[in-house]
Design a protein that fits this description.
There is one protein chain. α2 crosses α3, α2 runs antiparallel to α8 and α9 crosses α12. The chain has 357 residues and is α+β, with helices and mostly antiparallel strands. It folds into 2 domains: 215 residues, Endonuclease III, domain 1 (Orthogonal Bundle), CATH 1.10.340.30; 107 residues, Nucleoside Triphosphate Pyrophosphohydrolase, CATH 3.90.79.10. It is globular, with a radius of gyration of 24 Å. The protein is built from 14 helices and 6 strands.
Length: 357
Amino acid sequence: MSVSPPSADRLLRWYHVHRRVLPWRAAPGVRPDPYHVWLSEIMLQQTVVATVIPYFHRFIERYPTIGELAAAADEDILGLWAGLGYYARARNLIRCARAVTAAGGFPATLEGLHNLPGIGPYTAAAVGAIAFGLPVVPVDGNVERAAARIFAIETPLPAAKAEIATAASRLGAQDAACASPGDFAQALFDLGATICTPRNPSCMICPWREGCAAQARAIAAELPRKARRAARPMRHGTVFVMRDRSGAIGLRRRPPRGLLGGMLELPGTGFEAAPGRADPPCAADWVDAGSIGHVFTHFELRLLVLAAEVPKLPPDLEAKSPETPLPTVMRKALDAGLAALGDDDTGRKNPGPRGPG
C-alpha cells in the first residue's frame, strides 16, 4: 500500500516554534551565510552537534571569512582542527576554501557545489538547500531515519539507502517544502535530532505522528533496520613520548595523504596487525606507560606507550609544547606518557604533595 507524505506545511509550522538555535544557522528572516553553512556541514560529517559547536566558534573567530581561511597556512588549520577527527575533511576543507576563493564565491548550483573538493551529494544538497534555496532534500542520518519511519521502509541499511532517498524526495516535493527548501531541510534535521530519535522516539509529540506509517504499525523504534556489521580488525603499534630539559615534546608530521594526513604525531611504529615491541629511538631510561586504545572507522588500534626524559630531542623531530593540538589518539598517548613521567594532564611537572606551610 502506498503511503502519502505527511504535510510539509505542518512540519514547517512546528519548526518555526521549536527550531534549534545553532551558531551556523541564520536567524529567521536573515539570509544564510554560505561560508557558515558549508563549514558546519563539513564539521558535522560523522560528528555530533555538541562536539562541533566549539570548533565552529574557534574557526569563525580565527577565520571570519572564507578568504581568510583560504589564506591560512595548512599547519595552522590542521592544528585548529585537531581532535575533531576524520582528518581528510580538514585537508579537503583547505582545498575547497582556496577553490571557492579563487572562483570568487560558492557556486549556486548542485553540480557546481558537488564539483568542489570534499563535497559529496549530501553536502551539496545541504548547502544548496540552506544557503541558496535549491529545491532539494539533503538526506543525512536524521532525515534517513525519519523517512524510513514515515513510509515504514523495512529493508535494512545500507541496501535501503536508495529507497529511503526516493521517499525523502517525496517529502520535499510538496509546495510548502519547495517554497522554503532551506527551512524544510533544517526542519527535517531538527525532527530527527529532537523527536524522531534513534532510540525511544517521542512519537506522541511528533508533528507528523498521524501521517507516520511506522507509528501506525507500532514499529517506529525498530526502524530503520540495519544489516549486521563485520567486526573491526585490531591493529597494534608503539609510540615514544620524549621530553627534553626545556619541557618540549618531540613530534613529527605525518605524510599529507592517508590516515591522519598532515597531522602532528608522536614518533613510533606503523599500525600493524600483530602486536610487537619496537626498539626506542635513543638511549634513555624508558618508562612503560601502558597502552591506549582508539577506534577508527575501519579498525581498532592499541598503542603501547613508552616515555622518557632525554637531554636532547632527536634531530628528526620538532620540539613542541605538550599543549600543542594533536589528533585524539595521539593526545591519549601523550597524556599517558606524561602521567608516567609524573606530570598532570596539562604537561606541567607535578610537584607532588604540598608540604607544611
